[in-house]
Amino acid sequence: VAPKGNDSWDGSVRRPWATLQHAAGNVTPGAVIHVATGNYSGPITCSRSGMPRARIRFVSEKQWGAAVHSNGSRATWINGGDFVDIAGFDISGDGAIGILNRGSNVRIIGNHVHHISAGGCDGNGGAGILNGNYNASDDDVIANIVHDIGEPNKNCARVHGIYHSNLRGRILNNISYNNEGYGIHLWHAATDVTIANNLVFNNRHGGIVVGAGDAPFDGSPNHPA
Q1: pTM given for the model
Q2: pLDDT at 215 over 90
Q3: Is 60 exposed, middle or buried, given 0-12, 13-18 or 19+ CB atoms closer than 10 A?
């Protein structure tokens, strides 16, 4: 995918597609979508799944060189497929969520997620990166920089840097700061999650919350590490 591409072309190196959304609608297991430096419009919605040995990978060729910005949508990037990687993008927007993942075995790696306005403090809240499907599992959030999610000068505990709400997964080596709520927040069905080597600071409500409750059940976390 490249800014000067064309969605009627074949998506090869010499004849790249123009939009990430077109790529997301045409990927198959094992595909690697290389995205050239440039600005791209969101929202991006991908519902296709890879396989354990044939993941679907969206990769910015230069880290943070491919910038995706959305206007007028709740999330900038929405992933509904399993076995998908989203790696190296610059993500921003005027909605409530930067990357919303609803799949399992998804890896969100090395992205710069920032300046998500979050639209106030409604009941749905917001996040820079959100693993939001309570029935999904094994999602990793690794080596991302997440900041300025919401408005850090406002008092709202529902808008976070990284929000994880499902079974297992790893939250490793991220930097999360200047966010309206917490830097890293676990809730809902978060169970058996590993959190390690993150730098979390200057978030209005606090650093890291490890808990469980509300939908789909009221309870306590199981063996957080």
Answers
A1: 0.94
A2: no
A3: buried
